[in-house]
Amino acid sequence: MNLLAVDTTGESLSLALRAGDKVFALHKAFKAPHDETLLPQIDRLLRRAGIDLKELDAIAAASGPGRFTGIRIGMAYATVAASALKIPAIAVSRLEAALGTSKGGLVCAVVPGWRDEKFYQIFRGLRPEAPPVWADPQVWQGVQAELALKHVVIKECDPTAQDLLAPALRHFGRKRRPRFEPLYLKPASYEAKHKARPVR
């Protein structure tokens, strides 16, 4: 199984490639924007692994949450490249990637945003129990207290492309995969009046 994972949602460009039973990864902040560094860095990663782009079985892209433009860059690449190669393009939420391996019970996967904001989602095992939510720092304090009362385990992580590989592999093996669409949670600046919803 040859699987390429791309995450351009943050400041660093994050790539991971599973080539057979080996994993090659890159996570680095470049001076140039992601749309300029993405293609050459993917080429370098493929050369490191000794495989050609045409040998890929699927391409996974981080669907968010994260920076609006960054989300679009990674997902646009996965869409175009997968279509040209006639292979699946798989959208993976960074919240699902942050969850990691969960054997059961309620777990709240948390991804840090900017200025102490949080993105979070509650899972039961590996299945979503509630929709993903954006919370500003003040709201998050209340959410944490409510989660503690409900004995929900909080798992906070800033996932990289390497963390996308496991959930992407799970989705690849299923008949029904997540819709390939961006996960925008934080309101745009002109929607600043939006208030985050507490956990229910």
Explain how this protein is built.
This protein is an alpha/beta fold and about 200 residues long. The chain has two domains: about 1-95 and about 160-185, 2-Layer Sandwich (Nucleotidyltransferase, domain 5), CATH 3.30.420; about 95-155, Nucleotidyltransferase, domain 5 (2-Layer Sandwich). It contains five helices and ten strands; from the N terminus they run E-E-E-H-E-H-E-H-E-E-E-E-H-E-H. Strands 3-2-1-4-5 form a five-stranded mixed sheet, with helices on both faces. Strands 6, 7, 8, 9 and 10 form a five-stranded mixed sheet that branches. Strand 4 (about 60-65), helix 2 (about 70-85) and strand 5 form a beta-alpha-beta unit. The N and C termini lie far apart (about 40 Å).
List the helices and strands in order. EEEHEHEHEEEEHEH
End-to-end Cα distance: 39 Å
* Backbone CA Rg: 17 Å
Please state the second-level CATH architecture of the largest domain.
2-Layer Sandwich
Shape: globular
**Based on DSSP secondary structure assignment, what is the total number of beta strands?**
10
Structural class: alpha/beta
Strand order of the largest sheet: 3-2-1-4-5
Chain-wise SSE layout:
Blueprint: E1 2-7, E2 13-19, E3 22-28, H1 34-49, E4 58-64, H2 68-85, E5 89-93, H3 94-99, E6 106-112, E7 118-124, E8 127-128, E9 133-135, H4 137-149, E10 153-156, H5 161-172
Parallel strand pairs: 1-4, 4-5, 6-10
Antiparallel strand pairs: 1-2, 2-3, 6-7, 7-8, 7-9
